[in-house]
What does this fold into?
Amino acid sequence: DADVTQTPRNRITKTGKRIMLECSQTKGHDRMYWYRQDPGLGLRLIYYSFDVKDINKGEISDGYSVSRQAQAKFSLSLESAIPNQTALYFCATSDSLGQGFTDTQYFGPGTRLTVL
Amino acid sequence: RKEVEQDPGPFNVPEGATVAFNCTYSNSASQSFFWYRQDCRKEPKLLMSVYSSGNEDGRFTAQLNRASQYISLLIRDSKLSDSVTYLCVVNLRGSSNTGKLIFGQGTTLQVKP
It folds into this structure.
């Protein structure tokens, strides 16, 4: 079984709809992340959480919100989806051995989201 | 200027060839460096960390040049399975000690039989 899972794997929705992407991990890591990937651009950080009570905005948090329901679960919501949020979304986890972002990131399989 | 820049390629090489990629970063406060590999829009996976003294893992060698602010990845004896996108990743030290992770856009390698 995969250590980091994401649901759904693919989603097509319409402008203005609220969408939730879910991420679960069995690695026992405290740190979790949400990224989006667009063609020709590197992965960009949306939100991150270093433990259950810690939520931080990343580089591109506008239009997104997150919830850390438990150590193993971190969900990303698009409150009112718009077409430029069409992208590949990755959840990731990491250990907390090092400071900040120094530990290996373990990614989920991704969610391909299309907003029409 | 992008914080982390890579030549997107694609680099086309025959099986068995040696190929090298460079990645430049703009911020001298960058703290740690990594190469990840990503296969055809699947999830990225760590290939190797890059240490100041350079490091090798089988056919892969990574080098860091802090003075010129670039890292490199050398692949020897290329295999068909090396045909993926290589992501250069830089951890930038921040004032809050958290820092941030910057991903390059990736360099695509195509190894031909």
User: Anything to note?
Assistant: The two ends of chain A are 33 Å apart (CA to CA).
